[in-house]
Amino acid sequence: MARHGGSSCRQGTRRRPTFEGNARDSHCGGQGQGPVDGLGPGQKSHLVSSSWRPRADGDHRRTAAPGRGILIGHEFMGEIAEVGSEVTHRSVGERVVVPSFISCGACWYCHHDLPSLCDTSNPNAALQQPILGYPTGGIYGYTHPFGGYQGSHAELVRVPFGDVNCFPVPENVTDEQALFLSDAVPTGLMGAEFCDISPGDTVAVWGSGGVGLMAGHAAHLLGAERVIMIDRRPERLALAHKQFGAETIDYTAVDSVLDTLRDRTGGRGPDACVDAVGMEGHGTGVQHLYDRTKQALRLHTDRATALREAILACRKGGTVAVLGIYGVTDKFPMGVLTNKGLTIRTSQQQGQRYVPRMLDYVQQGDLDPSYLITHDMPLDEAVHGYEIFKHKRDGCIRAVFRP
């Protein structure tokens, strides 16, 4: 990682789980970072236990993709193999989970519990500023504008600002339970909190991948009376019903998701809607064909199917939480938001805020995220893991890679 302050350590190669990856290399070189060997005084250890592609359940290669020389993977946990000289609270041999976004712990945003917006952790912030206005923090295994950090599909992962970004895993929490606290679990909890759930509320969630399932499960934990999951994969919908009693809609089996939700909510609509799909959402009908055609012709980059549907389906005065990842959205129904008085809330995940709380949920037996794991394989089979995930083969939701 770039040696720009904070402490770092390196996590070792004990065979702990690492999440879905496409990496063919086991080194950590690349733009924006030095090689794995030789930690700076402010750098933390490397952990490899789970990593995940962008949160949208889409084709990673057709949308935002890591730049040349970047090793992918950003959802992981593992054992600390080495610590930098400025690391004071973490030690070699500790089992830790690491949020996907990197926090310095000292800037204004980190002090306000917005670590993904860190002002310090992105060494390539100048590349983002023309696009976003103000740059975000860095993230593992993504693109150069997000810091160019090497990802977790490797035997070692360098973690900067180690005291801030490595969270110890209690002995009674397994690797598999801790793994998704790196990204999917805190993202889901954040989305559920965005919904401001009150007793009796109905929450509808588009997408039953890892993040969608965690958002639905968190909504249930936060007191939603009904959680309705919307997807086209029967095995995922069945899992949501089994794990937290969700109602389900297979959107390929109904004429209209909007009409179905209207019927199930007495004509009012869900109190809150969560988009856990993002830019690669699938749909049906003329609007879906329109989206696909424009994307194929490169006239826009996103298919906002789930987001548009969530906005239209939400009751008047309700809340739409956007967890799916978007680039440049075409045909965004701003007028619907205004006329219906909707609140829209969105963010990249703020893992450092949520990991301790989610560890409590796991320890108390309220949540066991390991049910997301459908495939377990060695890291050198990562390419195969990505292929089965991309094509949703064999019921794949999450594949764990072990280095």
From TrEMBL:
SUPFAM superfamilies: GroES-like, NAD(P)-binding Rossmann-fold domains. Signal peptide: none annotated. InterPro entries: ADH-like_C, ADH-like_N, ADH_Zn_CS, GroES-like_sf, NAD(P)-bd_dom_sf. Residues 1-65 are annotated as: Disordered. Residues 29-41 have a biased composition (Gly residues). Keywords: Metal-binding, Oxidoreductase, Zinc. GO terms for molecular function: oxidoreductase activity; zinc ion binding. Residues 58-170 form the Alcohol dehydrogenase-like N-terminal domain. Its cofactor is Zn(2+). Residues 210-278 form the Alcohol dehydrogenase-like C-terminal domain. Gene3D superfamilies: Medium-chain alcohol dehydrogenases, catalytic domain, NAD(P)-binding Rossmann-like Domain. Belongs to the zinc-containing alcohol dehydrogenase family. This is Glutathione-dependent formaldehyde dehydrogenase.
